[in-house]
Design a protein that fits this description.
Radius of gyration: 16 Å
Distance between the termini: 26 Å
Structural class: mainly alpha
Number of strands: 0
Order of helices and strands: HHHH
Number of helices: 4
Helix content: 55-70%
Shape: elongated
Length: 96
């Protein structure tokens, strides 16, 4: 278990996902940078492949890009909701 997975499990945003996630081997094979190896990596791998094959033309790969950005936004919303929940239990105090 990586540090990221440990933190996500501690915050409650890492588990319970039904979509298939990319394995470490697949992410490594696709040469994804470490900071992009999250729960949306299974969408980033085909997006990067499409971008490479179409010479990064902006009107290509729109569906792949939209699904990846939607996944990133959903993950952000989950993190914000979890932080709001944590702050509510602390009476509105910030942790930093």
């Amino acid at each position: 278990m990586t540090v990221t997975e440990t933190v996500k499990d501690a915050l409650g945003v890492g588990g319970g996902e039904t979509k298939p996630l990319a394995t470490r081997e697949e992410m490594s094979e696709a040469r994804l940078p470490i900071q992009y190896r999250d729960s949306c990596a299974n969408l980033l791998i085909p997006l990067n492949r499409c971008r490479f094959e179409t010479y990064y033309l902006p009107w290509k790969c729109e569906d792949e890009r939209h699904s990846y950005e939607k996944c990133q936004y959903d993950e952000f919303k989950k993190r914000v909701a979890k932080m709001d929940e944590i702050r509510a239990t602390k009476g509105g105090e910030r942790s930093n």
